[in-house]
Structure formats: C-alpha cells, structure tokens
Amino acid sequence: MAGRQLADKWLKTEALLSNADVAPHIPHTQIYSADTLKSMVHQHGMVVIKPLRGGGGYGVIRVAWKNGRYAFTYMSKTRVFGSFEAMFTALEKARTKRKYMIQQGIVLARIGGRPIDYRVKVVKENGKWGYRSMVGRLARPGLFVTNLCKGGTMMTAREGLALSFRNKKVSTKKRREMRNLTNTCISIMENAFPGIEQLGFDYGVDTGGKIWIFEVNTRPQ
Questions:
Q1: What does the pLDDT look like over 162-188, one tens digit per residue?
Q2: pTM value?
Q3: Which residues pair with 144 in a beta bridge?
Q4: Are 42 and 65 in contact (CB under 8 A)?
Q5: How far apart, in whole angstroms, are the C-alpha atoms of residue 202 and residue 12?
Q6: What are the Cα distances from residue 61, in Å, to 31, 68, 186, 217?
Q7: What is the chain's Cα-based Rg?
C-alpha cells in the first residue's frame, strides 16, 4: 500500500493553514530568503530552516538571534556571528542546495534536558482511517533534531508526555488533544489531496503544553 505521495512541505502546510481550528497550531512559516530569515529570527528569537523536500532531519538548521548576535546550529555544531550578513554568508555555504522554508522555533518540553517531539501515524485501509502508532522521539544528547536516524530514542507518546510533564493527567489530556487534532487534519489532507492512504504527523509540545504541528508526511517511516 502506497497511496498518493506528496513531498512538498509548503503545499501541505498551506492546506492545514486553511482551517481556522488547525492554523493556530502551525508555527509561523515562510519560504526561505535572506530578508524573511532576518525578519523572522528578529521576531521569534529562534527559527528552524528545513528543505521543502526530504526527511530524516537532513539539512535542518536552527538559527538564533540574541543580544545582537546571530548563531546557527547544524547537528551538534554551533557557530556565532556578530552580524546577520556574516551569519547568512556562512549559512548559505552550510545548507544543502535545495529550496527551503523557515519555521518559527518552538521551545519543546524536555526529558533530562533533551527535547522530545511526537510522530502520529495513521493509515487508510478498506476505506477507513486507523491509528498505527503514537510515539515520542527523544533527541540524542547534544542535538536539537529528534529523528531516530540521527540517534534519537523512541518511546510511547504516553511515556514521553508523562516524563516531560511529570503529570499523568496532563499526559492523558495531551494525547487526547493530539488525536482530536489528527482527526481534523486527516479530513483536511484528504480533501486537499485525494488518494492519500497514509499520513505521519510530527507534533511538538512546548514548555507551556501547547501542541504544534511541525509537518505532515505522506510516506511516514
């Protein structure tokens, strides 16, 4: 079973933004350019740039601005600069030569100082959508990306939420919110892109407990 594949992250983000209930859960997202990057990093303090196509954390870079200084982090290495121009020049050499998008950085809840996010996978069989998995992905020490192929640790979503918030009731509530949001997003995606048969939703939960949708995959691992 494959179903329709859709690689472009921007198209999927636009579809989700069209829904008033889902839009508040989408981080501020724009197509990558120097002017937009400068504006967004000043607005949010931290952003993440990622290729429009591709997965596994490949090419994902975090950019930050604080006290007049700029920095970017790729994998475990951070470089600091005194001006945006110097940072951008180095960034252009470091990033992959693909089209990129910029996404508002979210300060994720952590376990032992390591950020955790969540993957919810759903599959359509015999005309009905069903849940296959809800897992947490804990970043390898020293990394901000949580991908398992980059050394992340997998656990159940229930376990991840309970450990990061140290509260069983909060864990239950957030899992329910995540499922409700997933159900709404399935309808949006199916209407926008007929023929899809599997979806993987990447969620983050920030330190205040708000759920964010980072991206949707039509070929989730």
A1: 999 988 888 899 999 999 999 999 999
A2: 0.88
A3: none
A4: yes
A5: 12
A6: 15, 19, 28, 19
A7: 17
